[in-house]
Amino acid sequence: MINQIMRQSLRAILLLTIAVRLYAQAPITVPAGLPDWAFNVPDKVQPASVRPEGIVRAQGSRKEYDAAKIAGNANPPDWFPEEHKPAPSSVQGGPGITMACGSCHLMSGQGHSESADLAGMPAEYLIRQMAYYKAGTRKDDARMGPIAKAISDEDVRQAAEYFAAQKPRTFVKVIESANPPRTFIATAGRHRQLHPDGGTEPIGRRILQIPMNPMATEIRDPHFGFLAYVPPGSIAKGEALVKRGSCALCHGENLKGLGEVPRLAGLQPVYVARQLFDIQYGSSAGKAVALMKGPVAHLTEDDIIAISAYLGSLAPE
């Protein structure tokens, strides 16, 4: 099954490769000494990559969009409006909206590997995180900080309640492999993609996360998630570390959340790793994070990879 998905993904790249100038995005700053694989830093040498053009459609959806009109952050496509309640303008975009939440987190709330999975998260938790971004307690000067400072409290609450109502589903498949397929991180979208030349590469000390369907990911189709390649033995090691750390005391049985404490189960491994590195480095803060700083401070890079792999392998519901 996985080999079939890999072949389909590679075929999609070969058929849809377009030699065009990739859309420029704000530069990414990686904290000193931390691994760039966790921050989706685009490769300096860029093969031609998947870019949608013209009218685009998603499998199983009755809708169609002009690729150019949904390429930015103001007008995210809503491929399956029947799957959720009406979204507020802060999520779906509209007049005066330049950064709609659905553009990065998708209308389903589960997002891509460069953004957080918000589906089913407690509304008060999401509101609190936005307050941290606004105050600078949680730092993201390139994206979330400016958004939090610009958005109204009412829009934050509406968006938080919308995403809290979304039911999460399995959106990532974690695969242990010493030699996963060769990949690169594209400038456009900052997604890791299969390299058009094919082949494999040593996993090393990394998590390599790629779209199951590159074109579907580019057009923000919420029905297609990711494959996350991790070093052999990562899931079992991560399970031991999580149970030793008693994470369930705060995050609930099966790590699916408890009260205002968010779930960890089923989160995308690259995102989890990035958050753990941020807690170690000090760019993520708050009362809950303060409680985590002690245990997280002693984690090695291999520990973080293993914990992230295990959490990603769990069913979110």
TrEMBL record:
Gene3D superfamilies named among the record's database cross-references: Cytochrome c-like domain (1.10.760.10)
Q: State the signal peptide span.
A: 1-26
Please give the InterPro entries that the UniProt record associates with this protein: Cyt_c-like_dom, Cyt_c-like_dom_sf, Cytochrome_c_Oxidase_Subunit
Q: Which organism is it from?
A: Candidatus Acidiferrum panamense
Q: Among its keywords, does the record have Transport?
A: yes
Cross-referenced Pfam families, in alphabetical order? Cytochrom_C
Cite the entry's keywords alphabetically: Electron transport, Heme, Iron, Metal-binding, Signal, Transport
The name of this protein is C-type cytochrome
GO molecular function: any one?
electron transfer activity
Start and end of every Cytochrome c domain? 89-167, 233-315
